[in-house]
Specification:
- The protein is built from five helices and 22 strands.
- It has two domains: about 160 residues, no CATH class; about 110 residues.
- It is an alpha+beta fold and about 325 residues long.
């Protein structure tokens, strides 16, 4: 009975977006090691001291770790490290000025404020910066989850906290952060200088529609009032002198304004009384970095739209 209640509770939480969905088992044909990654998984490494006040270690493999089947080097100059001293009052977070990774040794050059005679080196970002360093730069964006384990570790970091660590994190357009400790979950995308929460804009702002030559002279185009960034309906009331070609385009907000970070895909269907069957749709983009914007183009071919006729096209994107 208790197991049934726990299962029901989990499903209800998942439906409300309070927990991440369970991943299907990965197979040999899966191109990525996991569908999403937990920042807390990159916080499990630690290196025991070999000598007091010495942060270069003998043995190269000592500084190599693994998280969710991804191998990574523990240190980077943009990743603060925690010196966890046996005397917790002396524990501190320090950012390396350089890293060492040779055939026989590895470590960091750091300038701590305290002497450390017995200590461990650990992540100074509770694994977040390590995850970002490993996962950024891929063709398809990676989703990094911030769960309660990450927040607990980050908020217990000496001299800082989770909010400060999140604000200082360094990524790029190919990494997306999701805080799953809130309901609904909060998404953060890279603005060019920091990770910015874009929930309201990204989920609720519909793309901007513009008529093309295929809509004729003097057309009226709009998105219905219920349209969002994910799904909606475009209304095209054709003008005169219609022809084939671009019927309309939909342009999403730029990344800096909370728009998607990649072109993705949109399924377009003709709906309503005046269905249109000879059209194609294609995704493209404009700009790059923070000016990147997703564009959907609907083109009519072989048959021009009927003059002064209203057509509806529904889009569903991911």
């Amino acid at each position: 009975m208790r197991k049934q209640l726990l299962s029901i509770t989990f499903l209800l939480l998942a439906a409300m977006g309070s927990v991440a969905p369970m991943a299907d088992a990965q197979t040999a044909s899966t191109p990525f090691t996991a569908p999403w990654y937990y920042a807390s998984s990159f916080n499990l490494w630690s290196i025991n001291q070999q000598s007091p006040n010495t942060y270069i270690f003998q043995g190269r493999t000592i500084c190599n770790s693994q998280a969710q089947n991804i191998n990574f080097f523990d240190f980077a100059t943009n990743a603060p490290v925690l010196i966890a001293d046996s005397n917790t009052a002396k524990s501190e977070v320090v950012t390396p000025s350089s890293i060492i990774n040779t055939a026989g040794s590895c470590g960091v050059a750091i300038a701590p404020a305290n002497n450390h005679f017995t200590y461990q080196l650990r992540s100074g970002t509770a694994g977040l910066q390590e995850a970002l360093n490993v996962l950024k730069g891929q063709a398809i964006p990676s989703l990094i989850l911030l769960d309660r384990n990450w927040w607990a570790a980050a908020n217990n970091m000496p001299g800082t906290n989770g909010v400060t660590i999140l604000g200082a994190a360094v990524g790029d357009m190919t990494t997306v952060l999701e805080d799953i400790t809130t309901s609904p979950a909060l998404f953060y995308v890279w603005s060019g200088t920091a990770f910015t929460n874009t929930n309201a804009i990204q989920k609720n702002t519909a793309p901007t529609i513009a008529a093309g030559a295929g809509a004729g002279s003097g057309p009226t185009v709009s998105n219905t009032g219920s349209s969002t960034a994910i799904a909606g309906t475009a209304s095209v009331l054709t003008g005169t002198a219609t022809t084939t070609g671009t019927l309309f385009t939909e342009t999403w907000p730029t990344v800096a304004n909370g728009g998607p970070q990649y072109a993705g895909t949109c399924v377009v269907t003709s709906s309503g009384t005046n269905s249109y069957t000879t059209f194609t749709s294609a995704m493209s983009s404009s700009g790059s970095g923070t000016t990147f914007a997703r564009i959907l183009t609907v083109t009519v071919a072989t048959t021009a739209p009927v003059v002064s006729t209203q057509y509806f096209f529904s889009y569903n994107c991911k």
